[in-house]
Amino acid sequence: MFIKNDNIALRVAEPYDADAIYRWENDMQIWRVSETTVPYSMHQIETFLLSNNDLNSEKQLRLIIERLSDKTAIGCIDIYDYDSHNLRAGIGILIDKDHRRQGYAAQAIELLMDYCFNTLLLNQLYVYTLASNMESMLLFESLGFERCGVRKQWYKTSDGFIDQIEYQYISKKQ
User: Fold this and answer.
1) pLDDT of residue 32
2) Largest alpha-carbon pair distance within the chain?
3) Which pTM was predicted?
4) What is the residue extent of each domain of the chain?
5) Contact 45, 18 (CB under 8 A)
6) What is the DSSP string of 123-145?
7) CB–CB of 99/2 below 8 Å?
8) How many CB atoms sit inside 10 A of residue 81's CB?
9) CA dihedral sign of residues 21, 27, 33, 39
10) Between the CA of residue 85 and those of 64, 78, 138, 156, what are the distances in Å?
11) Which residues does residue 73 pair with via DSSP β-bridges, in sequence order?
């Protein structure tokens, strides 16, 4: 167990999480938000999981969001683009479609923010979301992230281009 509240825990992704991660990473419905356009092999997932434990060298860390009541992996949350000099990192989150709209994303982000600001001593976190993803924008705004930028026509779809919105949260501990 890594960090937890009464409902969920964030823990380091383990090799036995490969099946769930394989399913999530290869779900074409979420490729738009993960900026992926090609599938991942099980070998790629397993290799990633075996090298995923050093934030300083890898500059990223994937954590599994586990529901405590039944030990089910319900999603993952990532720290990426970790910058120990400028004390910032990007975050990304995915909740399995069967577990969305139950408050797990907000809880996981709050736990991750606590870790990033109080253990890693980061100054800020940032997140990118597509302008079409209103749920994500509302979620991050409700947690105190401030909209700080727009990348116009950033992501191409079959229906045209979508803007990407950038949010950041600056630690109150400056």
Assistant:
1) 55
2) 44
3) 0.86
4) 3-123
5) yes
6) SEEEEEEETT-HHHHHHHHHTT-
7) no
8) 13
9) positive
10) 26, 19, 30, 33
11) 66
Torsion of CA 154, 116, 69, 66, to 10 degrees: 50
Joined tokens for residue 80: 């990426």
Q: How far is 89 from 162, CA to CA, in rounded Å?
A: 24
Pairing mode, strands 146-157 and 72-83: unpaired
Is the CATH number 3.40.190.10 carried by domain 3-123? Answer: no
* 27, two tokens: 């779900």
Q: How far apart are CA 112 and CA 3, in angstroms?
A: 8
pLDDT at 174: 58
1-57 confidence digits (pLDDT tens)? 589 899 999 998 888 877 777 776 666 566 555 556 666 676 766 676 667 667 887
Classify the C-alpha dihedral 117-134-98-45 as positive or negative: negative
pLDDT of the residue at 18: 72
Q: Both tokens of residue 91?
A: 């975050």
HSE of 10 in the Cβ direction (CA atoms, 13 Å)? 24
